[in-house]
Design goal:
This protein is α/β, with parallel strands linked by helices. It contains twelve helices and eight strands. It has one domain: TIM Barrel (Alpha-Beta Barrel), CATH 3.20.20. It has an eight-stranded parallel beta barrel with strand order 1-2-3-4-5-6-7-8, surrounded by nine helices. Helix 2 crosses helix 3, helix 4 runs parallel beside helix 6 and helix 8 packs parallel to helix 9. Bound molecules: coenzyme A and zinc ion.
């Protein structure tokens, strides 16, 4: 069965949107637990303005103090040259550049139009060309924008082209506020993979409207094999109204494993990491498997 690559974004997308600052040592412990689960990639943090995202103001400390495991790609989100310089000093494996397809969201998130940000990435890529580092290009609001509504496919394709011209190694399409429908995911992913058959394409879904796992299945049907997800199902962009959690990593791994896909992430260890996550938060996590158990966890008839 097909190998699917799982990337976890809890300590970036998840914790950026929490009301409370999660202490640095707890973030490090959480990432160390995740490293042991066999995830393919972990988006550790973001090197953004601490005024914009105060919860991730400890990016350097976290990045430098985690125990790195061979085989795991340790990635960080970067919106500008200053972020790239900070990330390089921490020896991240991959820089994840970010721009939104929607000008309106990009202005809220990064204070620039989409074109201004892409233009600024030319200098970032020149700086990074001297470094031995992977660069991924993320496109926020790829499937819809909470301000502008529908996003035309041609716009997404054009921005992928621009990113590839800049020299990125891979592309992520992010559904920032869970507006993607499964049929849209199939159509857009098919079009992209027809244009660029060898492109390492990642899909990043939020489960805001309950379509997250259905979207993954339609992405797989179109040929996509890389997915972002967040432990416990936390996440969301503070600069997008109504944003809520990513698809939940342990729920995703549970579904795909029981369907027979090849996933190198250990489900029991993921569930244990989700329990640890729950223990450091003061509210319930949205993930379902951590509460319901796996489909193979049977009950004794004396329980009811
Ligand atoms: N890391 C740390 N500090 C940074 C920074 C970075 N990557 N980029 C800018 N700053 C600092 C500047 O040094 C300046 O500090 P000062 O006020 O002490 O002089 C301040 O932030 C403002 O910088 P400026 O270049 O004027 O940027 P801005 O205020 O227009 O903000 C971004 C632009 C991109 C830095 C900011 O909007 C941002 O970090 N956005 C990230 C949003 C995000 O992560 N969203 C969630 C993901 S979807
Ligand atoms: Zn996200």
């Amino acid at each position: 069965m097909k190998r699917i690559f799982i990337h976890d974004v809890i300590t970036r997308d998840g914790l950026q949107n929490e009301e409370q600052f999660i202490p640095t040592d707890k973030k490090i412990e959480l990432i160390n637990q995740l490293s042991n689960t066999g995830l393919d990639k972990i988006e550790v943090t973001s090197f953004v303005s601490p005024k914009a995202i105060p919860n991730l103001r400890d990016a350097e400390d976290v990045m430098k103090k985690i125990k790195r495991k061979p085989g795991v790609t340790y990635s960080a989100l970067v919106p500008n040259l200053k972020g790239a310089e900070r990330a390089i000093l921490c020896a991240v494996d991959e820089i994840n550049l970010l721009v939104s397809v929607s000008d309106t969201h990009n202005l809220k998130n990064i204070h620039q139009t989409t074109n201004q940000t892409l233009e600024s990435y030319k200098e970032v890529m020149r700086f990074l060309s001297k470094e031995d580092i992977l660069v991924n290009g993320s496109l926020g609001t790829s499937f819809g924008c909470p301000f502008e509504g529908e996003i035309p496919e041609e716009k997404v394709l054009r921005l992928i082209d621009q990113y590839l011209e800049l020299g990125v190694n891979g592309i992520t399409l992010a559904d920032t506020t869970g507006m993607a429908t499964p049929s849209q995911v199939y159509q857009l992913s098919t079009n992209i993979l027809n244009h660029w058959p060898d492109l390492p394409l990642t899909l990043h879904f939020h489960n805001t409207r309950g379509m997250g796992l259905a979207n993954v299945m339609e992405g797989i049907r179109a040929g996509v094999i890389r997915f972002d997800a967040s432990l416990g199902g936390l996440g969301g962009c503070p600069f997008a109204p109504g944003a809520s959690g990513n698809i939940c990593t342990e729920d995703l791994v549970h579904m795909l494993k029981f369907m027979g896909y090849e996933i190198r992430t250990d489900l029991d260890q993921l569930i244990n990491a989700a329990k640890y996550l729950q223990s450091i938060l003061t509210h319930d996590i949205p993930g379902q498997i951590v509460k319901a158990g796996k489909i193979t966890d049977l009950h004794s008839t004396s329980e009811i």
